[in-house]
């Protein structure tokens, strides 16, 4: 994705959690194509360095930091390092997330349940908690929680995932209320199914359990979206770009659904 001149996010620093691949990678690339300095984070160094290099090759600015969002010390270290280097943190996208086991509630162990909460809820909390003081020092900022359509409607899959994504939705609304006076806008984005390693793994798991071919499951998933197919990571990234740009200066506490019509039924 080529870097544009005079981008909408010129010189702003953007931390995108879980941007080593999947939706986070696309978000980091779209933000840097509009002039942001993208801070690529995640646990897979090789992939993080790849994303940062690809952004730089396209004329943008990026650097990779190892970050496990459940490690409070590491979150504090990375946010401090970014602030000390750039003097500001303008954007945080809480994107890192896991699906967790797809099975009914009564079959979940407490450990499995807490693992999903640890990454999807506590991880997002820790990142917001550490970034907000820097945003306040800088006179404002933008936080986006990547929730899901599963934070809005129920299904027969992943009960822990549903609960965490609903938590992300309300974390954004609460943050919007608390930090409006500090000029920090907080919003959530709710993707429908997007083709990434997370969905690929989910379909593999379902295929083994149900004995149905992955291609058939993929067709079913496509048909569940009125638009006729599942989405691409960039579909979500452009929604995030809008929310963190000045064009959305009156937008806070909102939930942007990008789902090919899935929840419109
Ligand atoms: P993905 O392909 O599995 O990518 C997940 C990203 O999160 C990776 O960069 C991974 O990096 C990172 N991550 C996982 N655990 C982490 C941890 N403990 N600390 C830091 N980073 C961690 O998933 P995706 O589909 O892109 O999903 C991204 C977000 O969108 C998630 O919050 C997901 O719930 C949400 N979402 C996805 C869909 C979909 O259909 N794909 C739909 C709705 C919502 P490392 O492995 O390098 O750490």
Automatic annotation (TrEMBL):
Protein name: Glucose 1-dehydrogenase
Keyword annotations of the record: Oxidoreductase
UniProt record similarity statement: Belongs to the short-chain dehydrogenases/reductases (SDR) family.
GO MF terms held by the record: glucose 1-dehydrogenase [NAD(P)+] activity
PANTHER family with a match to the protein in the record: 3-OXOACYL-(ACYL-CARRIER-PROTEIN) REDUCTASE, 3-OXOACYL-[ACYL-CARRIER-PROTEIN] REDUCTASE FABG
One protein family per Pfam: adh_short_C2
EC number in record: 1.1.1.47
InterPro entries: NAD(P)-bd_dom_sf, SDR, SDR_fam
Class in the EC hierarchy, top level: oxidoreductase
Source species: Candidatus Methanocrinis natronophilus
